Amino acid sequence: MAMPMPYGAGPGTGPGNHSYLACGECQTLLMYPTGSPSVRCQRCQHVNRAPPVADSLQISCRGCQVLLAYPRGAESVRCSLCSSVTQVPRYSHLVCGSCNITLMYQVDASSVKCAVCHYVTPVGAPNRGAQAGHGAKPSQTVVIENPPSDPGARHSVKNIAVGVKAEKQ
């Protein structure tokens, strides 16, 4: 029998020290103690390997907006509630061409706008300070919101970067 999802909780996080995962055989939502290496489904008796706690990441489901946990390196995540598949974005880093801070961007972006100095640095261009980056014509702005500095704290600090995807010429 499927474990009911507590209101406001998503797969991967549960009350107290519990986590959730969908059975790999029958898709029943299972609740288990966080840190357990495996979970046996009471419905079909399938033994499911639980994701390691340290290597789990989170993303919002594109269908129902519930928070999904997934193992590091996954390309997509299927929601156990609405069955929609959410693609996991891939990121890379570069140094701002003006203020020299490190910026994170989605790998398909052709340039990145610095959230600090607003300078546009082309992806793949050598970092030459103020000489690089001018002349890019942005066609799409991408906002990347990284996990908060301390998700458990009452007043966590958000980490947001802005990427500008320019048209290829």
From TrEMBL:
Q: Name one GO cellular component term.
A: nucleus
Q: Keywords in UniProt for this one?
A: Nucleus
Q: Where in the cell is it found?
A: Nucleus
Q: Which domain of life is it from?
A: Eukaryota
Q: InterPro entries recorded for this chain?
A: LSD1-like (IPR040319), Multihaem_cyt_sf (IPR036280), Znf_LSD1 (IPR005735)
UniProt key word Repeat: no
Q: Which residues form the Zinc finger LSD1-type domain?
A: 23-47, 61-85, 96-120
Looking at the record, which segments are called Disordered?
A: 129-155
What PANTHER family does the entry give? PROTEIN LSD1 (PTHR31747)
Q: What is this protein called?
A: Zinc finger LSD1-type domain-containing protein
**What is the protein's species of origin?**
Chlamydomonas euryale
